[in-house]
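Sequence and fold
=================
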Amino acid sequence: RRRGVRAVVARFKPKEVDDLLDDGARELRHAGVLQKSNKIGKLVRHYFLFSDGVLTAEAGRANRAASWFSHHASHAHHVSYAAKENSRVGADEKAGASVDSAAPTADAADMLRKCKWIGLRGARVQLPLEHAHDSCYFELSLPESKTINHLWADSETARDAWVAAFRKAIHDLDFAPPPPLPPKPAAIATDEATGAAMAAVLRAHARDAELVRGSAHALASAGDASALRTLIARQPQSTKARGIFGASPLHAAILAARQESVEVLLEAHEAMEADAMLETADDNGLRPLMAAVLCCSFAQPLKGSEEAATAATTAATTAAAAAAAAASGGDGSGVTHAARVGLVKSLLRAQADADSGCKELRSDAPLLIAIASRQGEVAIALVRAGADTRAACIGGAKLPALHLAAQSGQAEVVRALLESGVGAMTVAPSLQMSALHVAAAGAHSSVLTLLLAHGAHPNVRDGRGRTPLALLPRASDGGADDDPQHLAAVCTAVESLVLCGARIDLKGSSGGC
């Protein structure tokens, strides 16, 4: 850090910027030459981006009539010195070589003057759509001085590097970084801490999309489909842009629940005839479909779930509810749950991988996350799109999808799983129980009826020799000895089993009955 700062100081007259850069926490992030618009035209200035602001100056004897490219070429080796020196020092230190700490001495023609310090807190970068044809142009909006700097880099690549550097510096100033994800494998469906960490990652992506106004991320997040379509037509590569944490514009549209933006991006995806957009993961390995499912599960409170008040609410549901509260943060955006479910279906119709690369990510599959958070419509859509229905949760009791749905009484999800070919007699190795045992333990009569209709044996025994009847809860388990709803649920479950051939006289059959 000191070596990079000294390289900058050497470009100025003695003592001109020493006090300004005498800050132990200040770090040089990026340096280069930009053109800045002023009242009389464009002025070539040198910019040094630090962790908390920008130092800008002009060359002391620069010929203002010189062309942009000739001026840039004459100073390129000085401008890039700091970045190259930092890279060289790191390599030399690793190799154990001695490093010369002296920065090069700039001659009079290279000395900088009229230095100015610009604070970046609250600043925003802008890429105006009307300048989309100019791939070198961008703007820096400064709220403290209420000014906008109109800037040009010497190439599109240089412009993109500046925009990325400004975005990262502004984000680090204005927002706390998201917490690190727990070590993999990631038990998203059943672990509260992992679910909360994933929700924090989603919030970080949403903040990042707003830092560069006019970018594909910002337009997708704002739902400006017309402007987004125009930008893609002028700059097709904008669909491949990546945010600070690796999110794509499609991630941004999904997090903001912008169906119109998702449709525009999917149209561009289809036109490109490539799978890159749908299968592009962020830095944490989250693909767009996984992000959409997480948004459905964690982005808002869950209501209206089937048999939500039963005593068989799972630990997975508790984790999802906690993550939902963490992610929602009192969001008053008015985004409906139906809109988020619609995004999942749109991605599946576009042939997104229903398992969303969960094996490479080493996490629970989207199907398990949807079931654990009681998102029945999402789970059914994933099953019909070909999701792996035999995968089991990484954490908790390591339940497969059928058992997870049976445990929480999600009859329609159980029906979809059975119709997809999952066997009604499938046994969960961790519990040594069939789905029928799990459903009986929660007195979920609708699930019991479905399993029995699809071939589950009513007298099957678990690993401890118990039949489904033995696992039925007693009436007092409902919280009160005379709870009529709980008693009715148990009686209905008993009736479903007995009518299908369950024998009360078998050893290990005594339970709630």
Summary: The chain has a mean pLDDT of 80. The radius of gyration is 30 Å. DSSP finds 22 helices and ten strands in the chain.
